[in-house]
Automatic annotation (TrEMBL):
CDD domains for the chain: cpPDZ_EcRseP-like, S2P-M50_PDZ_RseP-like
Domain of life assignment: Bacteria
Protein name: Zinc metalloprotease
Cell compartment(s), UniProt: Membrane
Species for this entry: Oceanirhabdus seepicola
PDZ domain segment(s): 112-184
InterPro entries linked to this entry: PDZ (IPR001478), PDZ_sf (IPR036034), Pept_M50_Zn (IPR004387), Peptidase_M50 (IPR008915)
Length: 346
């Protein structure tokens, strides 16, 4: 890539970094607010990782920006071991600690819903209703009509147009069982997609054009909830594929891929960037609730087990486990970053 191209794209790269930083700040803000509400002393609020670039000292919290624009954290008193101070995280009731830990991912889900809703209310969205049928395409030949609503495909509930596209993509041209709502009557169809070649790629189509609606903001938020739910299902669907060994290295991207994509989307305009931020916000929430040490999910698992058993785990041991988990995550991040450079997804 020439220096001229890099210079031209600097504004979009900066926009991408700022967008990602907003998501991280929002996530950490969730932890911060709930920590304060639960009477826990917050020692540090940092955006980024690595060496501190600059910081501001508040009344009791140090607010820092660090060198690497990846991640961030809220450091609470007594988070890493035993502490006698009553304001320490370790000395709060399990349910209070659970609200603090869960707040970050919950904030990310809320932000995704708001961002999706904002985009939908301004631009409209595609819904799985049949607005138009392509002549001589499979859908019209099996009897699907304009106005039909797609409610199920291959026994998977369809709430969004994205849900339908995912089923079609996973099906690889095989026949699809559809359930259609036609004015309250549920009708079943079996449809075989038509294979077409387009710009050197094979695509499978059924000849259905979705309906475009421009909802009120309230309805847009409802659609935002559905889209967020759809994103969660797709992500865990990918985890299932990866567990079965059906995912390839090209399906996985790390920080470099995210920044590349964010920069490209920023170049496309503000609304595409906001939509992409919503998608990444969902991914951040899901990543953080995985039951792994140092992640929010690891803490959530420990706290739930403590609430069930009524026994408190040794805080020093938990702190050491979280430290090891943090180092493992850093190592994985380095490996994924190297993979991004050597085998880029885009």
């Amino acid at each position: 890539m020439s220096l001229e191209i890099i210079v031209k794209n600097i504004p979009f790269i900066i926009m991408g970094l700022l967008a990602f930083s907003v998501l991280v700040i929002w996530h950490e803000l969730g932890h911060f607010i709930l920590a304060k509400l639960n009477g826990v002393k917050v020692e540090e609020f940092s955006v980024g990782m690595g060496k501190k670039i600059f910081g501001v000292n508040g009344k009791e919290t140090e607010y820092n920006v660090r060198m690497l624009p990846i991640g961030g954290y809220v450091k609470m008193l007594g988070e890493e071991g035993e502490c006698k101070d009553e304001r320490a995280f370790a000395n709060k009731a399990n349910w209070r600690r659970l609200t603090i830990v869960a707040a970050g991912p919950i904030f990310n889900f809320i932000l995704a819903i708001l961002l999706f809703g904002m985009v939908y209310s301004l631009t409209g969205t595609l819904v799985p209703n049949v607005a138009e049928l392509t002549k001589d395409a499979p859908a019209i030949s099996v009897g699907i009509k304009e106005g039909d609503k797609i409610i199920e495909a291959n026994e998977k509930k369809i709430n969004t147009w994205t849900d339908f596209l995912v089923v079609m993509s996973d099906n690889k041209g095989e026949s699809v069982d559809l359930k259609i709502d036609r004015e309250g009557e549920i009708i079943e169809f079996n449809i075989v997609p038509k294979e077409i070649e387009e710009e050197g790629r094979t695509r499978y189509i059924v000849g259905i054009a979705p309906e475009v609606i421009k909802p009120s903001f309230g309805k847009a938020l409802e659609l935002g909830v559905k889209e967020t739910k759809s994103m969660v299902q797709q992500t865990f669907g990918f985890f299932g594929k990866a567990f079965k060994g059906k995912a390839s290295k090209d399906d996985v991207g790390g920080p470099v891929t995210i920044f590349k994509l964010t920069g490209r989307v920023a170049k496309a305009g503000l609304l595409p960037l906001i939509n992409f931020m919503a998608i990444i916000s969902v991914q951040l929430a899901i990543f953080n609730i995985l039951p792994f040490p140092a992640l929010d999910g690891g803490w959530i698992l420990i706290l739930i087990l403590q609430m069930i058993t009524g026994k408190k785990f040794n805080e020093d041991i938990v702190g050491k486990i979280n430290y090891i988990g943090f180092m493992v995550l850093l190592g994985l991040m380095v490996l994924v970053t190297i993979k991004d450079v050597l085998y880029p997804v885009i």
